[in-house]
Amino acid sequence: MSDREQALNIIRAMPEYKITALLTFLRAFEEVPNAETVAATEETDEMIRTGGGQHFTGATEDFFAMLDAGE
User: Fold this and answer.
1) Tell me: the pLDDT tens digits for 33-63?
2) The predicted structure's pLDDT at residue 28
C-alpha cells in the first residue's frame, strides 16, 4: 500500500473534528512565499551558515526599543 493510500485510510477513519484540525495544518503547505520572503529566508540561512549578521540577546521589549531607536 502506498503512502498516499495509507494517509487516505487514516483520514477516512478520523472523526470530523480532527479533519478540521488536519485541514488547518495542511493549508499551511499550500501557501507559496513571495519573492521578498524567499530572499529574506535565504539571507537568514546565509547568516546562520556564516555566523554573520547582528545577534541580540535580551528581552523582547529591549529589542523593539533598539529597533525604534534605529540602532
Assistant:
1) 899 999 999 999 999 999 998 888 899 999 9
2) 87
- Decide if 53 contacts 59 (C-beta within 8 A): no
> 39: which 3 cell numbers?
530572499
Give, in order, the Cα–Cα distances in Å from 3 to each of 18, 26, 30: 20, 16, 19
Q: Say how many residues make up the chain.
A: 71
Segments in 1-71 forming alpha helices (H): 3-13, 16-27, 35-50, 60-69
Cell output for 24: 488547518
What angle (nearest 5°) sits at the alpha carbon of residue 61, between those of residues 55 and 62?
50
Classify the phi-psi angles of 7: left when phi > 0, otherwise alpha if psi is within -120 to 50, otherwise beta. alpha
Answer whether residue 71 shows pLDDT above 70. Answer: no
